[in-house]
Amino acid sequence: MEGPGSTSAGLGRSSFMRTHRFLRGSDLSGPVLVILVTLVSSVCAAQAAGAAAEGKAGGSAERENRPCQFRENDVLAPYRKISWEDYKGKRPRSMGPAAARIQAGIELKSFEVETKKEGDVWVVRAKDICLYSFLDKFKSFYQADVATSIALAHGQGHFDLTEAFTRRLYWTLVGLEARNSEVGLASAELRSRISAEYQKALREWQAMEDLYDKETGHGGYALAQRKWKKKIRGLLATKHAGSTGG
Question: Could you tell me the residue ranges of all domains in the chain?
Answer without folding.
Answer: 7-236
